[in-house]
Amino acid sequence: MEAKTVDAGLLQSRYRLTRQRSAVLRALGEGTHLSAEMILERVRAEMPGVSLGTIYRTLDILRGIGLVQIFSYGGSAARYEAVLDKHHHLLCSECRSLTNVTAEGVERIARDMAAREGFSDIDFSLTVVGRCRDCAKHSHLQSV
Amino acid sequence: MEAKTVDAGLLQSRYRLTRQRSAVLRALGEGTHLSAEMILERVRAEMPGVSLGTIYRTLDILRGIGLVQIFSYGGSAARYEAVLDKHHHLLCSECRSLTNVTAEGVERIARDMAAREGFSDIDFSLTVVGRCRDCAKHSHLQSV
DNA sequence: CTCTCTGCAAAGCATTTGCACATTG
DNA sequence: CAATGTGCAAATGCTTTGCAGAGAG
After folding, report:
1. B19 beta carbon < 7 A from strand C?
2. pLDDT, tens only, A63-82
3. In this complex, do A133 and B114 lie within 8 Å of one another by their Cβ atoms?
4. How far apart (Å, rounded) are the C-alpha atoms in residues A16 and A32?
5. How far does CA A65 lie from the centroid of its chain?
6. Domain ranges of chain A
7. What is the CB neighbour count within 10 angstroms for residue B82?
8. Rounded-to-integer distance, Cα A85 and Cα A102, Å
């Protein structure tokens, strides 16, 4: 029952552990940077009939508990991922692919920023937007 | 005609300089972290009849040229600001207020991340989400 | 058994788009 | 003038919500 590991956070919370929530957690354990629709697809594979509304409600709860992290960047649908390690994001402005990257030193800077302005209970994330290797290769567009 | 300074970027671009675009740039020069609606309000003050669609189209162009920066964080409407200095953001998870902060060292880290993964033409931004001083003071909620 | 969760379908926003006319260069 | 830009209004896409029945503890 490795599910227990995944579900632990929910069990410890004030929320009920339902099959739907468990399935969402499992989906997020298998894939990363999933949109709500993509999660719905995966969840429905083993449990048809689940609604998108439930996915969104669940994701919201999981984010509140701190099990899930949202990445949203104007326009497209938000992406969700399980909170495992602390990492940052590279977003390709062309193909919209997302890459996780770890980076040293960001935490200290973030904590300094927060301290200077009196922020508490912080989370932080460095996002780099640019053109990924593949898109740079496959296109002959000039940089602006 | 200080407008020239503001309009320069557009004049140098392949886009036409219209009264609407000029007004959007001026609005962004006066306020920061404005939503499209807020910009519309300001622009309409001097030029009634401008449409929201035009604001969005203009903002998109300005972002493409690099004159404007978007900040979007799930749920609420995106915020726009003129690109003046390089800064980062503190977002209060409670009152949703946005604060600009400059920080040393972020650029080198971002460039390292990009280099490691082969990203080019990058822009980067460190976002810290937390509880601002005021919200921490006025509420007696426990940290999660 | 009570309280919470879910599916369904409709509503809500923010943003985008097609089109005919107006404007810029 | 030819090419672009604009207003209008409708369309789109993502996310949220009200409600009545189902499920968890």
Report:
1. yes
2. 989 899 999 887 789 999 99
3. no
4. 24
5. 14
6. 1-84, 86-144
7. 19
8. 9
DSSP element (H, E) containing A25: helix A19-30
Q: Has domain A86-144 been given CATH number 3.30.300.70? A: no
CATH class of A1-84: mainly alpha
Measure the CA–CA gap between A116 and B14, rounded to whole angstroms. 42
Total-model pTM: 0.84
User: Locate tokens 């003129």: which residue?
Assistant: B82
Tokens encoding A95: 């193909």
Question: What is the per-residue pLDDT across B85-121, written as a single tens digit (0 to 9) for each?
Answer: 889 999 998 888 899 999 999 999 999 999 999 999 8
Q: Does B140 touch chain A (CB under 8 A)?
A: no
Longest pairwise C-alpha distance within chain B: 54
Q: Does A63 contact chain B (CB < 8 Å)?
A: no
